[in-house]
């Protein structure tokens, strides 16, 4: 489905919904008992929802403006709007107008009540095929929800606008444009592990959106142009979709700090000025640009023959590529370069703690390792090393070493623990 198809379907659905909602509201107004509320009660002291809100466009902006006016009026002890100054509640049915609902709907309603006061809605893992209508209508004030209670906690003007929307682990195939219309101030959207095939074009209007998780869906490259227009994005997850080829358009996201494009058929990416964490495991990358801001990089199981010298890299996972040497990483703490073709290790960071070099082409023990004063874990198994240097026994920081699968003559040493190996090497040097 193309973006245009997705938008057209959503527009039709939205128009139909508006007609039905207007008819429904008209019927509910006619059935309101005439003696239910005194329109000019002098004893009531609670502020009333402005009447225009009942018929105003369905948007979070209108709600926020009404809330702001009500709160300001309350501080000045002035009744906003006109008519009966009654209390409005989201979980009561004073007029007995609401239809009967089942247990599953009760769960949704409870979540909505909580979301209206917290600004965070989580409807994940509910086997949903689409976003429930009640979610889109969660800020719509209906006559059937009027509550004559004086509870301050239930007051409608204590609502906050939605900032977090989580609907992960469902079976949702598309998002309605109303998600944008109703929740324009949303900051985080998590739709991972659904069946999305497109996004509504209105997504570019989410000017507060900083975190978007769309991993494990059925999205292709058509969404990239749309996503790259959401300039506030700082965190973007697109793992396990149907993305292919270069993703250069994402380079337009100048504020991006975290990017996950793993398990896609991506061949190349752009450079970023603020990117700190990049996960591109199990793609088809043949090269990667120098991104000086990167501190964590996962590019395991690609087609890389070289990795740039990242100046601020703390954690590098590049296993399962075609590297013949390690990059110079002056700030690195962890390096996983297993299953490559590395034959030499020239320069290592003084702060290095973990070094994994199993299944490579090492024929001699790298001397650069012997000068590491912080190294605690070393894996050089499945190489072609024939002899261990005695200096290895003097590495006090080393707590774990894996040697299996090498060509060392004394096979018994291959299965010993780290301290036993170091002690044996010191003995051979006459230091024990």
TrEMBL record:
InterPro entries: Leu-rich_rpt, Leu-rich_rpt_typical-subtyp, LRR-bact_E3_ubiq_ligases, LRR_dom_sf. Keywords: Leucine-rich repeat, Repeat. It holds the Pfam family LRR_8. SUPFAM superfamilies: L domain-like. The keyword Repeat applies. Residues 1-46, 84-100 have a biased composition (Polar residues). Residues 1-56, 72-100 are annotated as: Disordered. The keyword Acetylation does not apply. This is Leucine-rich repeat-containing protein 40. It comes from Neolecta irregularis (strain DAH-3).
